[in-house]
Amino acid sequence: MIRFVLSDLKRLWAGSLVVVLLVAMATALGVTVTLQERALRLGTARAADKFDLVIGAAGSETQLVLSSVFLQAAPLPLVSGATLATLANDPRVAWAGPVGFGDSFAGYPIVGTTTALIDNTSGGFLEGEGFADGEDAVIGSAVDLPIGAEIKPMHGTAEEGGHTHTEIVYHVQGRLKPTGTPWDRAILVPISSVWHIHGMDGDDHDHEHETAGETHEEGHDHAHGAHEEGHEHHDHAHGAGEEAEALSEVFTSETPGVPAILVKPKSIADAYKLRQQYRQGNTLAVFPGEVLTKLYATLGDAREVLSVVAIGAQLLVAASLILVTLTHIVQRRKQIGALRALGAPRSSISLIVWTELFALFASGIALGFAIGFAAAKIITGMLVAKSGVVMPVEFAKADLAQALVLLAVAAGLAILPAWLAYRQSPVEALRG
Prior knowledge:
Layout (H helix, E strand, L loop, with lengths): L1 H10 L1 H36 L4 E5 L3 H8 L12 H8 L4 E13 L2 E6 L1 H7 L3 E4 L7 E4 L10 E2 L2 E2 L7 E2 L5 E7 L10 E4 H7 L19 H13 L10 H7 L13 E6 L2 H10 L5 E4 L1 H44 L1 H9 L4 H42 L9 H27 L2 H6 L1
Parallel strand pairs: 3-10, 5-9
Antiparallel strand pairs: 1-11, 1-12, 2-3, 2-7, 2-11, 4-9, 5-10, 6-9, 7-8
């Protein structure tokens, strides 16, 4: 029987190919939607795992997380330096790292931060070393720049008509290990230098204070001198002692504001206490996971809509396949009648018809899963290149259940033409 089925399908290869492709495209649509949504959810959740608590100025929770964790540039209100100083000295906090953004270079975001945040989230260096002075930069694993490269920060992006800062030129000192997060595409620089080139140091505010990058008057004078001479040339004309002082990460109530502060509480209880304490007044504290859960709900709603569209497409394909198979049976009436006249039992003919159609449907479903997986991989690759979030495209047990349901439906659809073949009279078929 198998030989007969294969020869029959080979003889009718054009129609068989159309059936397989119809089933494959309808299946691939649903598979792509499912795999892509799951990849996005898993990737963003893993990217946010490194950051327990984010604190910023009162505003949008979603934007605070997107900007600080996923480095999606947006103008955020600044949380005061006093808040940063309080968190840095809070016994419930393991470490608190400020995040300053708004500049870019060659399409990569430049993020001002501290060595404490880098040491606790990066996993170490692939090559090079960390900050030695205020003009050093550390790059993520996906930044296509060599060690020693010069970086001239641009305020905003070229597409937005940004302007290049002439006050400073950073030099790449180290490359971090991959983290699978948007920080792999980031250029990290000392937060003190970000404050300085944006006019947030002591002179611009007409009062003397200590910042993370200027812990005493001598360090401040040196940074100001570098600012004045930066338009002509950028050199590292300060001693090792001054460099160490310039990068001292000691925050006070006079420290400039920052868009966000990433906080690592010492315990789960401390995390909830800090969240409650800073969710009032002019500050906002969020767990990235909570915000992502709300986003997942929105994604889930979108996935449901797309799934309904996919199911609708599959139903249309199923209806067209029933029409095609019924037409196929009508066209093969004489062949079926001849087989019956030669003594072939009804059950054998019905089984042949069912086997042929089910084989075509099953092949289409298998091809659809392969096409859906490839499409999800391609879409994910484009999203990863743009966002830096590693999104795993992988099948789960739910996909096996979906495949079994589709096969069961295919088996059911193949029964109708098989039943018609079973009921067909050989005499009437040969007369027709």
